[in-house]
TrEMBL record:
InterPro entries: CR006_AAA, P-loop_NTPase. Residues 90-239 form the Protein CR006 P-loop domain. It comes from marine sediment metagenome. This is Protein CR006 P-loop domain-containing protein.
Length: 262
């Protein structure tokens, strides 16, 4: 093999090498340009704000997504507009505005007059010494509600039923009832079943006087088992006038019912 190589080896005289100064200069210049570019890249990398670039990238991606979803976005905007309109219409059906306006009107027109009549009835029934007051509590579904409360109670949660006697509570209820119904149009009959069964004699006389006064403007029916009230009503009817008593007063006694006396 060695012999074969030597056999094919060409033997020529050595040629002089051409000058490489120009090539070396060209390569050196190219290397310098590469170094300059590398330095510029390094400087650009130092000045590059990655967070800002990421933010801008997200913004561009969002704009691209919005553009792609334009139809769906418009449909959602229309849906929200309709929903807002429906909510506005729904609010118009709420009774809150009615309750608010009813409370304002009632406070100005009804409540003050009602409270005045209530206090007047308390005085007429001889219960002016009972320290209670009638106040508006709230309005619900356009209806204004009132409540009887104790005057000067240190604890606002103290209820009249926890302080007042049964007779006092009954006289207050009677005053509230008369204040409510006496000013209504029409003269419907009143029926009282033992209106003073638990009251003392002072309230008994005052209540009887009030019932006789009512009887002069409407029919009043009183059911009672108290002989004292029976006698007081008859005396008061006579005091109005004998003529009025004969025309408008009628006393009936039920001594037994169904064969049972009592």
């Amino acid at each position: 093999a060695r012999a074969a190589l030597h056999a094919h080896e060409a033997v020529h005289p050595a040629q002089p090498v051409a000058p490489q100064a120009e090539t070396i200069a060209s390569l050196t210049d190219y290397a310098g340009r590469l170094d300059d570019e590398a330095a510029q890249y390094e400087a650009d990398a130092v000045q590059f704000d990655r967070a800002q670039a990421s933010k801008e990238k997200l913004g561009l991606e969002a704009r691209k997504w919005i553009t792609e979803q334009a139809v769906a976005v418009r449909a959602e905007v229309d849906r929200l507009k309709k929903s807002k309109a429906y909510d506005a219409w729904k609010a118009l059906t709420s009774s809150r505005a009615i309750s608010t306006k009813a409370a304002e009107v009632t406070q100005a027109v009804v409540t003050e007059a009602y409270v005045g009549r209530f206090n007047q009835e308390l005085r007429a029934l001889g219960a002016h010494r009972i320290q209670v007051e009638l106040i508006k509590t709230r309005a619900r579904n356009g209806v204004v509600l009132h409540q009887v409360r104790l005057k000067g109670a240190q604890d606002a949660r103290t209820q009249p039923q926890g302080v007042l006697s049964e007779g006092e509570r009954r006289i207050i209820s009677l005053a509230a009832f008369l204040a409510d119904v006496c000013e209504k149009p029409g003269a419907a009959p009143f029926v009282f079943d033992d209106p003073i069964s638990s009251l003392d004699h002072e309230f008994e006389w005052a209540v009887a006087c009030r019932l006789v006064a009512l009887a002069q403007t409407r029919q009043v029916i009183v059911l009672t088992h108290r002989l004292s009230l029976y006698g007081i009503l008859e005396d008061l009817a006579r005091k109005v006038s004998d003529d009025w008593k004969s025309k408008h007063y009628r006393a009936m006694r039920i001594e037994s019912y169904g064969g049972v006396a009592g």
